[in-house]
Amino acid sequence: MRMRLGVIVAYARVHFGDEPTLEQYGAFAEWAAQMQFAGIELAAFSLDHFARDFSDSQRLQRFRDRCQARGLAITAFEAGFLRHMTVHQDPAVRAQAVAELRKSVQVARSLGSDLIYLHSAPHPSWTIEFRRLYDEFSPPTRVDVPAEFSWEAAWAQYVGVIRDLVREAEAGGVRLALEVRPYEMVSNADGGRRLADAVGSPALGLVFDTAHFLVQKELLPVAIEKLRDRIFLVHLADNDGITDYHWAPGKGAVPWDGTLGALRKIGYAGFANIDVAGTYQDIDAEIRAGRDFILARLAGASR
User: Which residues span the membrane (predicted)?
Assistant: First the structure.
């Protein structure tokens, strides 16, 4: 089975706003099908967004059916609202994260997906200053960690929350992935492995985002070897290895042949989603350029 090409929700956010409605996601799905992608993601970015657009299972099932009729799979549901809840210092908020994950399981199942993911997060006690444009992070110009901060205590708390989330996902028959990003509690392949080992469940994996990992100065093929079957989803984006831009694949410094070759070597047969995000004159054209670049690389490797 070969890796399939999908697309993330950035198109919908650029065209419709930060929290697209389900109807607007439908327009995104139509566009993705026309562009011959095999799958899309859906995402809820706040608790209000989640309640407004993802609480009606019948609507979600109709959305799934329309996607399937167009040859589109829903590759994952991003529970974006969970990110900072996982590191919140109020136990009640962390408990709420588990309850919201339980609801997210039903959303994923209604959409026909077996994967939920969320982003890693920085610890709330850290002060990190950097330039941010959309989801693009520059190297921090200031990092302050309070004297009373304990990594061991923060890590134990984080592992406990993720373990509780994974337990809910596993009970509902879905998997949970963490998209690890620079400057956060988990930010590289070794951190991802450590978290997976600590949680101890095969239902926990990672979203392997080539742009994030490049900024972390990872050797991408080596990182893929380290993570192997913990890679549940791949995001394909490029940057200069310094600032966490999400350019179209082929426009930056990602070593694409080695990266795609490593994914083939480990037998990765899931979705790889084009992850062009940010501010562009024509994001549609940028996504198509990334798609065409990856398809050409895959075609060349199969000869």
Answer: none
Three-state DSSP class for residue 135: coil
Q: What is the CA radius of gyration of the chain?
A: 18
Does pTM surpass 0.90? yes
Mean pLDDT by 10 residues, the chain (303 residues): 91 96 98 98 99 98 98 98 98 98 99 98 92 66 94 98 99 98 95 98 99 97 98 98 95 98 97 94 96 94 64
Domain holding 183: CATH number? 3.20.20.150
Question: Could you give the number of structural domains in the chain?
Answer: 1
| Rounded alpha-carbon distances, angstroms, from residue 218 to 223, 225, 246 | 7, 12, 16
Q: For residues 34-51, b (16+ Cβ closer than 10 Å) or e, as one string?
A: eeebbbbbbbbbeeebbe
Q: Which residues pair with 118 in a beta bridge?
A: 178
| Gap between the Cα atoms of 254 and 240, Å rounded | 8
